[in-house]
């Protein structure tokens, strides 16, 4: 072995029974076309895809049915032609048995493809165009957690990927999907690797395969014979297929705790993902199917099938000869890292590499957990060099800080520790629960911190607003004081202004002072601070002073000239007569009044006659009012007539009247306008002067600063409501708002 082909070992690891011979002896078969496909919208890590079809719509094979909903997301395509029959919650492959949003397609049996757009000349395409093609094809990792491939290929601009590692390890027992893919489709695999090389330009390409797959090794080596890609073969050990473990085996370099392979210039891709990239670019086919291992002793014909995404797992197992009387557990994935499915109705998704139908003898239930005996075997088996025993105790005690300090999140949940535990403690379950608790608490703390920042920013804005209001109030007070001093120093002739104007001004000032005081007292009740207490005391003193000045002015003002006594009597007589007349009219409207009502009518008539006599006497004694010019009545009548004609026209227009009905009203309005002009000319009154008042000038720079602050605040709130928003984007939005508010506070007009 040359220095370049050196293989390193990883700590820990185990050698469980492989059981791969159950499914690796027959070629890949095509699964039957199902009548109904259930396609969950979340088949990848990241944001759930957004449907772009509607119920009742016909779709063709390969047609997009859901758009990527964010940067870390992937679209979804129709695996066959048919009709969208439902969009909503459907069974999802998860141990909880929960439902998830999905698109349901009823197959029409035609399997009609949408028009494909192959790109055999991809070497002439720009990297951005090639990445967009992979993204639009809906490809996510087919060997692990399902991370969107285009996102993984988008390396940081300052970072160079020098090593591309292709993972063909498939170390977990029972699973042989990648093994059969490498045997039968090595050419497509290498073509997909070529596309990745075109994209990231690595210095070397390493293909890692365990030594228990001799046929696959031979096929891949033959396909790579004309390329510099290195096929590295290493001893079989679980979990050598883990991303960080494979990197250490092939390069001898460890990924830092909490870091990513890209941090050390390495990128890993699964062999199935590479083949899907070939299909998308060279053939123009989106990801609509995958190779899945059907295995377990409850199946009569175990093997590997290429099945459409969305196919119910029950139909696939029937195709493989499922004996339900033997079935004990149905596991999606392998026996080490897979999970038990609650029913046979869940669909196949992009990450479903294996369906294991096991019998009770094949995978017996674990015995009851016993207390830890501190044997240390779990630590020896851990491939990440963790301390599983300590992590177990910290998880039991919910000591989250200790769990993080002992690198809980470096655990790949391979199950090696639980496999070797003599006490049968389900260690991985404790770790998963602890991780979920920590993530939930961190999310709550993050939201609380955001809320605190928003509260503090709001308090700061309120403080600045109060300071600005206080400055404006002081400026008004100083202006009023200067005006009062100027009035006191003015010559006696200037003091000849009407006393009621000065009194009116003092009333307004006293009222404004009271309003300002009440507002400040309300703020003090909500937020008791020394600054607000001082402000309230100052405003109370100002209000008292204004009230005292008003009282002094009222005391010094001359008494109003009393109206003639006859005026009040005449007014009262008119009111009395009007009230009696109204009461009488109300009773007279009764068709058949009874005796009491008739007596009341007679009494009211007598009272009304007396009131009208008193009113006539007073009117005869009152001086005759000055006659109004004859033109005034005509002018008033013309104005009323014009208003009525204008209202009639608007009402007809609003009702949608036709032109024949509208024209007479327009003519009447024009006539009324001419009549008004004639009446104005005949009245002898001067034409009214139009006085335009100008608003004070607006400081354009101040307005622009306020607008920028408002937009920055709105953008930040929008990002804070978006749970999928990146932390970097949130930080940029906060920085932008802080800078806008600083400039606004510092601006001096």
Describe the secondary structure blueprint for this structure.
Elements: E1 29-30, E2 36-40, E3 50-51, E4 58-59, E5 64-67, E6 76-77, E7 82-91, E8 99-107, H1 127-136, H2 149-153, E9 163-167, H3 177-184, H4 186-200, E10 204-210, H5 214-223, E11 230-234, H6 243-251, E12 266-270, H7 271-282, E13 289-295, E14 303-308, H8 313-319, E15 329-332, E16 339-340, E17 354-358, H9 377-381, H10 388-396, H11 400-405, H12 416-420, H13 427-489, H14 499-526, H15 530-556, H16 565-588, H17 595-621, H18 630-654, H19 659-683, H20 700-721, H21 727-746
Parallel strand pairs: 1-14, 9-10, 9-12, 10-11, 13-17
Antiparallel strand pairs: 2-8, 3-5, 4-7, 5-6, 7-8, 13-14, 15-16, 15-17
Structural summary, described in words:
The protein has 21 helices and 17 strands. The protein has helices at 127-136, 149-153, 177-184, 186-200, 214-223, 243-251, 271-282, 313-319, 377-381, 388-396, 400-405, 416-420, 427-489, 499-526, 530-556, 565-588, 595-621, 630-654, 659-683, 700-721, 727-746, and strands at residues 29-30, 36-40, 50-51, 58-59, 64-67, 76-77, 82-91, 99-107, 163-167, 204-210, 230-234, 266-270, 289-295, 303-308, 329-332, 339-340, 354-358. The chain has 6 domains: 3-358, NADH-ubiquinone oxidoreductase 51kDa subunit (Rossmann fold); 372-488, Fumarate Reductase Iron-sulfur Protein, Chain B, domain 2 (Orthogonal Bundle); 499-557; 567-620; 634-680; 701-746. Mean pLDDT is 87; it is low at 690-695. The strands form 4 sheets. A 6-stranded mixed sheet has the order 1-14-13-17-15-16, with helices on both faces. The protein has a 4-stranded antiparallel sheet with strand order 2-8-7-4, with no helix packed on it. The protein has a 4-stranded parallel sheet with strand order 11-10-9-12, with helices on both faces. It is elongated and about 130 Å long. The longest helix has 63 residues, at 427-489. The chain is α/β, with parallel strands linked by helices and 749 residues long. Helix 18 runs antiparallel to helix 19 and helix 20 runs antiparallel to helix 21.
């Amino acid at each position: 072995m040359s220095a370049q082909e050196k293989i390193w070992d990883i700590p820990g690891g185990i050698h469980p029974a492989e059981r791969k011979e159950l499914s690796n002896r027959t070629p890949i078969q095509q699964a039957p076309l199902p009548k109904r496909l259930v396609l969950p919208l979340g088949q990848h890590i990241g944001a759930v895809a957004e449907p772009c079809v509607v119920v009742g719509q016909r779709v063709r094979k390969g047609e997009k049915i859901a758009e990527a909903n964010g940067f870390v997301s992937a679209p979804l395509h129709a695996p066959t032609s048919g009709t969208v029959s439902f969009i909503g919650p459907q069974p999802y492959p998860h141990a909880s048995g929960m439902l998830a949003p999905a698109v349901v397609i009823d197959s029409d049996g035609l399997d009609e493809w949408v028009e494909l757009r192959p790109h055999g000349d991809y070497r002439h395409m720009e990297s951005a165009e090639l990445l967009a093609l992979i993204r639009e094809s809906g490809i996510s990792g087919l060997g692990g957690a399902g991370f969107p491939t285009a996102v993984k290929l988008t390396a940081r601009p300052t970072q160079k990927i020098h090593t591309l590692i292709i993972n063909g390890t498939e170390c977990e027992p029972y699973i042989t999907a990648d093994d059969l893919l490498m045997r039968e489709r090595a050419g497509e695999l290498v073509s997909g690797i070529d596309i990745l090389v075109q994209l990231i330009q690595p210095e070397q390409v390493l293909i890692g395969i365990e030594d228990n797959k001799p046929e696959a090794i031979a096929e891949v080596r033959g396909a790579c014979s004309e390329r510099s890609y290195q096929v590295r073969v290493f001893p079989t050990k679980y979990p050598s297929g883990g991303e960080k473990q494979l990197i250490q085996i092939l390069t001898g370099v460890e990924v830092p705790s909490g870091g990513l392979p890209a941090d050390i210039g390495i990128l890993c891709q699964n062999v199935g993902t590479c083949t899907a990239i070939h299909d998308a670019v060279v053939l123009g086919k989106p990801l609509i199917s995958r190779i899945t291992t059907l295995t377990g002793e409850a199946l009569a014909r175990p093997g590997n099938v290429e099945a459409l995404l969305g196919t119910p797992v029950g139909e696939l197992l029937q195709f493989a000869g499922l004996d339900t009387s033997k079935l004990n557990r149905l596991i999606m994935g392998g026996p080490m890292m897979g999970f038990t499915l609650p029913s046979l109705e869940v669909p196949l998704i992009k990450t479903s590499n294996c369906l294991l139908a096991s019998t009770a003898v094949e995978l017996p239930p674990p015995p009851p957990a016993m207390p830890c005996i501190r044997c240390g075997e779990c630590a020896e088996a851990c491939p990440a060099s963790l301390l599983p025993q300590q992590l177990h105790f910290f998880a039991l005690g919910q000591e989250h800080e200790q769990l993080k300090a002992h690198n809980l999140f470096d655990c790949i949940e391979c199950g090696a520790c639980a496999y070797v535990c003599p006490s049968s403690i389900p260690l991985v379950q404790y770790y998963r629960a602890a991780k979920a608790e920590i993530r939930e608490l961190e999310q709550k703390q993050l939201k609380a911190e955001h809320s605190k920042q928003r509260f503090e920013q709001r308090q700061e804005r309120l403080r600045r607003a109060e300071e600005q209001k206080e400055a404006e109030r002081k400026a008004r007070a100083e202006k009023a004081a200067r005006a009062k001093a100027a009035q006191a120093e003015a010559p006696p002739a200037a003091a000849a202004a009407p006393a009621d104007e000065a009194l009116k001004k003092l009333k307004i000032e006293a009222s404004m002072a009271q309003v300002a005081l009440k507002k400040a007292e309300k703020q003090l009740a909500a937020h008791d601070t020394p600054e607000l207490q001082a402000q309230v005391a100052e405003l109370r003193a100002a209000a008292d002073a204004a009230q005292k000045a008003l009282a002094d002015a009222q005391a010094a003002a001359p008494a109003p000239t009393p109206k003639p006594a006859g005026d009040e009597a005449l007014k009262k007589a008119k009111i009395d007569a009007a009230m009696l007349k109204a009461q009488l009219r109300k009773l007279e409207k009764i068709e058949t009044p009874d005796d009491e009502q008739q007596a009341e009518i007679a009494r009211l008539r007598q009272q009304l006659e007396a009131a009208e006599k008193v009113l006539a006497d007073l009117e005869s004694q009152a001086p005759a009012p000055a006659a109004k010019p004859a033109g005034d009545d005509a002018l008033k009548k013309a104005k009323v007539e014009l208003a009525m004609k204008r209202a009639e026209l608007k009402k007809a227009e609003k009702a949608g009247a036709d032109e024949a009905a509208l024209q007479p009203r327009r003519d009447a309005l024009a006539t009324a306008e001419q009549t008004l002009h004639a009446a104005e000319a005949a009245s002898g009154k001067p034409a009214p002067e139009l006085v335009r008042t100008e608003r004070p000038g607006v400081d354009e720079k101040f307005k622009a600063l306020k607008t920028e602050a408002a937009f920055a605040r709105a953008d930040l709130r929008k990002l804070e409501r978006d749970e999928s928003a990146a932390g970097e984007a949130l930080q940029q939005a906060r920085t932008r708002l802080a800078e806008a508010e600083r400039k606004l506070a510092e601006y001096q007009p």
